[in-house]
Structures are given as structure tokens and as C-alpha cells.
Amino acid sequence: MKFTTHALLCVLVLSLASCARPGPPSEAMDLAQVRQALEAANAKFVEAFNRGDAAAVAALYTDDATLLPPSSDLIRGRQGLQDFWSAAMKAGLKDVALTTVDVWGSGDTACEIGKYSVTVQPEGQERRADSGKYLVVWKRQTDGSWKLQADIWNSNLPPQ
Amino acid sequence: MKFTTHALLCVLVLSLASCARPGPPSEAMDLAQVRQALEAANAKFVEAFNRGDAAAVAALYTDDATLLPPSSDLIRGRQGLQDFWSAAMKAGLKDVALTTVDVWGSGDTACEIGKYSVTVQPEGQERRADSGKYLVVWKRQTDGSWKLQADIWNSNLPPQ
User: Fold this and answer.
1) Beta strands B61-68; A146-155: pairing state
2) A12, A66, A107 ranked by CB distance to B24: nearest
3) Burial zone of A35 (CB within 10 Å; 0-12 exposed, 13-18 middle, 19+ buried)
């Protein structure tokens, strides 16, 4: 019995230590691993966007995601996002590139600052380049994958 | 001894239950309380901005915060932020108002979607109104307060 008591005491101490407060337990987020997962998801975004597949782009967002595009009110929900990205493709946005700059977060919430570049070429009009930056909040899904929960960006260039 | 063993067993089970996995422990974030804290911080931002105190605005950000303003590259660090907000005030931005729309997050990371309105009146030029939306990632400080870690916005209006 004494052994059992000591064994239990050890397990108790270890189990308490493993979820010690204060300080967010989520500090243990493996940022290198999360960054790799977000970059892989961004690669899927770019691939889907550049082949003009708005549904595949929208599928990378959570069901209740919010998109905050310039010159637009905010847009909620996957169908609205798909319609937005479809319209953007039809308006001549192509050759998107994304570069992750910073990743941080805790628990199931990861934040990413990145830079984008894109070509804008409306039909019959001159081709122009745009570049800017974005902030995306990602949400870890129950299967361990990450989806975009909120997505906002703006151009580095003066208004055109 | 038997009592002690049982007592330890109970404590062990309770302590393990209190930090049960899977699922981020940070789901326990009290969103109503966090929202209240962020709205209070936003009220300080608005008050400082509208009296033209760029240093007080910058003090609401973390030391290593990132600002992602439209028509600009990203800006890092409190002095850079203070210079930006000071320049914005001199350029005629005033009467800022902020309205929180959504708050979520986990651990020490809180995310806020909101709407802004602002008046822009460069010296000797016509007054115009701007409105748009923002995404801010807040970081909980060791004293329990929240500071802006990343801040990006864009206008709902067409480019002007």
C-alpha cells in the first residue's frame, strides 16, 4: 500500500506539473511545425487560386470564416467567400504568391503575417502588379489541420 | 493509509480531468470578459487618438507590435508605430470611432474583428468620411491587461 501511495503521489505531482498554471498552456505550441502547416495550406491556396478554382480556395476557410477585403464590407461564410474569390478571378486577379513573415499564437489559434503579390489584368486592360501584406487568423481543426478563420489584406501601393 | 490512497486517487482523477486532452485548454477563455477588456482598451485608443496623443496610442501596443497600414509596407516596433500615428494625425485623421464585432481566441492570444469610422481633413482640403474594418490580434500581458500585437485595416470605400 505504501508503494501504491508513493506511486500515486508521483503520478499526481507529474500530472499537476504537466498542466501547471499560471501562464497559458498553449505557449507550448510548436511554432516551427505550425508554420510548416500554414505554409502548406498557403501553397494549396495559391495552387487553387492560380488554376481559377474558387470552390477549392473557399474550402480552405472554416465554415464561418470572415473575409475583410479592401473596398468591400466584411463577408461571412464559405459561400460568400467563394463568390468573392470567383468574382476576383473574373476581374483578372492571377499569379498570386504568398510569403509567410511571422507565425505565433496559442492553443487552436494561430496568427500569420505575410506578404502577397498578384497580377491584375482585367479583360482588354493593361496588366499591373499589386503587392501588399495580410493578417490571417487560422483555426486548428479537430483532425489537426488548419483553416483560415479570418483573412484581411491591403496593398502597399498608393490608391489606384 | 487507505484513506490517504483514496484521497490521492480522487485528487489525481480531478486534476487530470481539469486538464483533460484533447482540445485546447485555452477554450476556457472567458470571451465576455476578454471582449470587455478589449473594448476598454479600444476606448483608450480612441480617446488618445482624438486628442492627438500618438505616444499614448503607441503605448497600447506591445513593444514588438506590427502595424500593417494601407499604402505602406508593414511597420514594426513601438517607435515606428508612434511615428506612423503622429503622421496620420498631422495628415488630418480625426474623430476615430471603433466598434467591436467579434472576439475569439485562446490562451494569451485574442482576435478582434471590428469596424472603424474616421474623418479625414487635410489642411486646406475638403473634409471626407472614411469607414472600414480591422483585424487586431491582442496579446495578454503578465499583469492581465491586453495590448495590440498586430493591427491591420482597410476601407470599405472604393480607392480615392
Assistant:
1) unpaired
2) A107
3) middle
- CA–CA dist B67, B51 (Å, integer): 21
Q: How far apart are CA A102 and CA A95, in angstroms?
A: 22
- Domain of B45, CATH number, reads 3.10.450.50
**A44/chain B closest Cα distance in angstroms:** 23
Q: Is residue B19 part of a domain?
A: no
- Residue B23 belongs to a domain: no
| Interface touch B135/A113, C-beta < 8 Å | no
Give the pLDDT confidence of B8-52 residue by residue, as tens digits.
443 333 343 433 333 344 456 899 999 999 999 999 999 999 999
Q: How far is A40 from chain B (nearest CA, A)?
A: 22
Chain B residues with beta carbon closer than 8 angstroms to that of A102: 66
A45-75: b or e for each residue (b if 16 or more CB lie within 10 Å)?
bbebbbeebbebbbebbbeebbbbbbebebb
User: Cα distance from B43 to chain A (closest Cα, Å)?
Assistant: 22
> In 3-state terms, what secondary structure has residue B156?
coil
Which among B25, B71, B154 has the least Cβ separation from residue A152? B154
Beta-carbon separation of B109 and A109 below 8 A: yes
CA distances to A52, A138, B15, B109 from B106, rounded to whole Å, are: 34, 12, 21, 5
Tens of pLDDT, residue by residue over B92-142, are: 999 999 999 999 999 999 999 999 999 999 989 999 999 999 999 999 999
Quote the domain boundaries for residue A136: 28-155
Residues of B in contact with A74 (CB under 8 A): 101, 113, 133
Using N-to-C axis directions, what is the helix angle for A2-18 and B2-18, rounded to 10°? 20
Tell me, rounded to whole angstroms, the distance of Cα A79 from its chain centroid: 18
| Whether A106 and B104 lie within 8 Å, measured CB to CB | no
Report the number of distinct structural domains present in chain A.
1
pLDDT at res. B9: 40
